[in-house]
């Protein structure tokens, strides 16, 4: 890693990194985009560009959003990355996608540049990776539906009602659209929604409804409100726990009360464990990916030899400073 280099070698390596065009980003921003992409899609895409003109070299690393612009294709048994702003048929008829060999293969483009595309995918899949969240996709769906249902219940759910059905001559039935419009509603369904559900400003507790005269005698029905809160609480709790587990996170850390502080041994242990497991694994994946990109540029810049082979950016754990403070307090 960079931290293992001597001071002079560090300066030389940082000067090398400054020569790489990151398309308006810095190395921190590039790292954050890679991490975000891995979380959301399970894929990271970096296009590496190199050219030499009249003795001057140009190199760039271009981050691409996988779900927007990228498609993996095959040709003669090799995988290639196709890049396009849009993937509609009308757009592709006008503008052919740019096709680049996937690393470790390189290709010389029509503009004279040498390019490769570094594609990192989460999981052992042929074409695309899957995000960690995929392991909890059913639980995320259940959590969404659970919250959506409760929201709809608060907004439009039935309150406790007594319904009285009475026979009525068919000349002017209560649920007729014309009669509803005459009373200021869009239609009969709109009137029922305002009169019978929580969406209405003052829903009725007793509702009289009519049906054609002569069908059956008057009936009275009672509908209880859906108030089984225990079921929804349990569904939400189970979904939340499964989602947290799928991401290798700690519920204790996510729900920690601020008054507990960071002095408790349990939280310190959780931070130490995550720093060398979940967090470290993510850091190594991203530093390795970016390192492959800089190795490509190093290879062509130094006439097909690697001057900085194996050197990788090193990231601190987000808990590092807290752990150092704890160590200083205990010293």
Can you characterise this structure?
- It is a single chain.
- β7 and β8 form a beta hairpin.
- Strands 1-3-2-8-7 form a five-stranded mixed β-sheet. Strands 4-5-6 form a three-stranded antiparallel β-sheet.
- α5 runs antiparallel to α8.
- The mean pLDDT is 80.
- It contains twelve helices and eleven strands.
- It has 331 residues and is α+β, with helices and mostly antiparallel strands.
- The radius of gyration is 31 Å and the shape is flat.
- The two termini are 29 Å apart.
Key descriptive features of the protein:
331 residues, alpha+beta, 5-stranded mixed sheet, 3-stranded antiparallel sheet
In brief:
The chain has 331 residues and is an alpha+beta fold. It is 42% helix and 21% strand.
């Amino acid at each position: 890693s960079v931290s293992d280099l001597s001071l002079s070698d560090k300066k030389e390596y940082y000067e090398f990194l400054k020569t790489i065009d990151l398309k308006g980003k810095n190395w921190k921003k590039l790292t954050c985009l890679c991490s975000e992409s891995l979380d959301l899609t399970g894929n990271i895409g970096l296009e590496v560009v190199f050219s030499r003109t009249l003795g001057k070299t140009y190199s760039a690393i271009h981050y691409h959003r996988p779900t927007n612009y990228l498609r993996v294709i095959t040709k003669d048994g090799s995988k290639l990355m196709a890049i396009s702003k849009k993937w509609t048929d009308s757009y592709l008829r006008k503008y052919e996608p740019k096709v680049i060999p996937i690393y470790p293969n390189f290709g010389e483009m029509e503009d004279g540049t040498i390019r490769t595309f570094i594609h990192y995918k989460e999981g052992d899949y042929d074409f695309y990776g899957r995000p960690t969240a995929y392991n909890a996709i059913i639980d995320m769906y259940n959590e969404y539906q659970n919250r959506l249902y409760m929201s709809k219940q608060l907004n439009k759910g039935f309150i406790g009602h007594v319904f009285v059905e009475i026979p009525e001559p068919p000349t002017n039935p209560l649920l007729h659209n014309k009669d509803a419009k005459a009373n200021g509603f869009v239609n009969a369904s709109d009137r029922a929604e305002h009169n019978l559900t929580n969406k209405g400003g003052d829903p009725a507790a007793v509702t009289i409804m009519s049906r054609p005269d002569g069908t059956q005698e008057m009936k009275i029905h009672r509908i209880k409100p859906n108030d089984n809160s225990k079921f929804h609480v349990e569904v939400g709790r189970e979904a939340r726990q499964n989602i947290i587990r799928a991401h290798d996170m700690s519920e204790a850390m996510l729900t920690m009360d601020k008054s507990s502080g960071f002095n408790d041994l349990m939280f310190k242990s959780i931070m130490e464990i995550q720093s060398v497991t979940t967090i470290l694994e993510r850091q190594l994946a991203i530093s390795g990916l970016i390192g492959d990109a800089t190795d490509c540029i190093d290879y062509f810049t130094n006439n097909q030899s690697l001057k900085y082979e194996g050197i990788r950016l090193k990231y601190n754990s987000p808990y590092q400073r807290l752990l150092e403070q704890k160590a200083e307090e205990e010293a």
